[in-house]
Structure formats: C-alpha cells, structure tokens
C-alpha cells in the first residue's frame, strides 16, 4: 500500500505486489519484501494444505506465460490514473457496487451502537466516497471525518452526496507526522516543509474505520518515497485506524495477496483481537489478488493491538526518515517464524483463504488474455 489516497478508486489497480498480476514485472518497492518472502514464506505450507491455492498457483503460471496479460493490466492502470469528472463518476459507481456487495456478504457497514452517542466514522482515504456514503446512510444520525488527497495533488474527486454529516479534509495522510508520533522533523529532510500537524486528538475514537487507500501513480512525491510509498501508506492507515477505533468497533481494510508473509501475519494479528472475515468482490477484484478484511468487535486496547500500532508507526518512521540499510532491516520482520505462524494459524489461514483463492483462480482461468489449451 502506499502513498496516498484514492480510497480504492484505483479500480483495484495499486502498485502491484509480487504475484498480484499475471506476467507483470515486479516493482522496485517490492524487492526488499521479496527478500523476506524467500526466507519467510507460508507458500510451501499453502501449496501442501490448500487445493484452492495450488489451483491458483497453476493458473497464475499460465498467466505469466501470456504476454497479453501485461497489456490488459496496463490498460486498467491507465484508466485508474485519470481523475476527470467522467472517470470520478465511473469509479464512484464502481465502488458503490463493491460496497453494497461487501455489505450484503458481511453486514459490515451497520454499526452496533454501544450507547446513545451518534456513531462516528473515520475514512482515512475517502475519495470517491462510495464506501463512506453507504456507511453514513446505513447508520442514521452518524457523522464522519474523512481524509482525501487533493485533486490538485493527483487525488480523486469526491462524489459524496450532499446533506451527509461529514467533515472532509483534503491532505496527504502519509505526511501526518505528529499523528504518527514524530514531532521533531530531522533537519534537511526532503519533505521538511510538507509534514502536517496533528489532525486527530489522541483520545478521539470512532466506531467504524475504513482503510482502503492505494498509491496513486499521478501523485507527485519526493524521490525517496517511490520505493517506500506502499509501506508508508499501509502503516499510516493501519496505525491511525486501529489507534482511533473504539473497543468493539469495526475496521475494513483493503489488502493484496493473502499468501504474502506480511499479510498472513497481519491477518493473524487481527484474528487474535477481533472476528476476522475476508471477502473478495466479484466486481473488479476477481482476477486480482485484492480482497477486503472485515474485522469486527475489535479489542483495540488489547496489548496485541497496542503493540501493532507502535510497530506500524515505527515502520512509517523508518520508511520516511531511515537509511536504506535501516529500511531493508525493517522489511525482514524477524519477529515471527514460519513454524510459529503455521502451527498457530495455518489451518485458519487455509480456511479464510479458500474462497479468496478459488474466486481468483476461476476468474483468471476465464480471462481473455489467458492461453487456451490446444
């Protein structure tokens, strides 16, 4: 995940993670993650224990051998890069369809009140706003705080309906240094003039948080960010989303490639502190590795949650201010072993991933760019 926003208006075409696109070159920002994957991978376990993942791996290999796949996904990326009014309207409708599909499957957008206080919603990367609009309309009397990258910086246009109780703040969330625990900016830093003051009081809590922003290629940024932006955005969204979620609240997160080491660990952590459900919409996501994690009844003050927030803020700090050596060390994530993860969480990961991998395998097998057997 990466530099700012565009609530998923990216039509599910972010900076791709390894294996997320058939026959697609791996971006620079994933090279250090690939090192970790080679030394810490759950893929062998999944290949042995999940027929659905084995099937997907076979289909992906066929996709890598299909040159037409590059052109197919590049066209999607080019369409996602546009930010004109027509494209904004299309993406809003696109995301609205996905949101309703997600809600029908999980009922995630319905907030369970804890008292008579009006429900509060936090959307960290809002535009075009379809998910937030669904949440506000499903919860009468609710109000929201929404961050979104300005259109002038390459962000998507907001299409929120009028009359909704929402405060929209247009900024680059990856520059929220104070909210991410950094009050003193190192002298001479490339972005020293761009870091932002605190936007969220430490004790401010929300009942529902949406974390589905993706890196936007048309967003101009300092060179040091290009190889680190995905981690900066992911860390920002997760840290602020979980830190400011009331105990018992709901978090929706857009993720990619469930079998990736860092994603499997993330799901495992949330499994310890919440009820986790995974959902892959058929609209726009089927051929891709993307899916949504819906975490409900989140114990946001649990020691695991507090430590996760601390860890994400440290990742953001290193990705923003650290040397290449520090950043490389950080991505190796030496805290867990493969053996520990698969013993404690492997069977549950296989169960959670079954519909995700099956849906993608079926969609890729039918893709127009796939080589057909002679």
From TrEMBL:
<dbReference type="InterPro" id="IPR029063">
    <property type="entry name" value="SAM-dependent_MTases_sf"/>
</dbReference>
<feature type="compositionally biased region" description="Polar residues">
    <location>
        <begin position="1"/>
        <end position="10"/>
    </location>
</feature>
<dbReference type="GO" id="GO:0008168">
    <property type="term" value="F:methyltransferase activity"/>
</dbReference>
<feature type="region of interest" description="Disordered">
    <location>
        <begin position="1"/>
        <end position="38"/>
    </location>
</feature>
<dbReference type="InterPro" id="IPR002877">
    <property type="entry name" value="RNA_MeTrfase_FtsJ_dom"/>
</dbReference>
<protein>
    <recommendedName>
        <fullName>Ribosomal RNA methyltransferase FtsJ domain-containing protein</fullName>
    </recommendedName>
</protein>
<dbReference type="GO" id="GO:0032259">
    <property type="term" value="P:methylation"/>
</dbReference>
<dbReference type="Pfam" id="PF01728">
    <property type="entry name" value="FtsJ"/>
</dbReference>
<feature type="compositionally biased region" description="Polar residues">
    <location>
        <begin position="20"/>
        <end position="29"/>
    </location>
</feature>
<feature type="domain" description="Ribosomal RNA methyltransferase FtsJ">
    <location>
        <begin position="102"/>
        <end position="297"/>
    </location>
</feature>
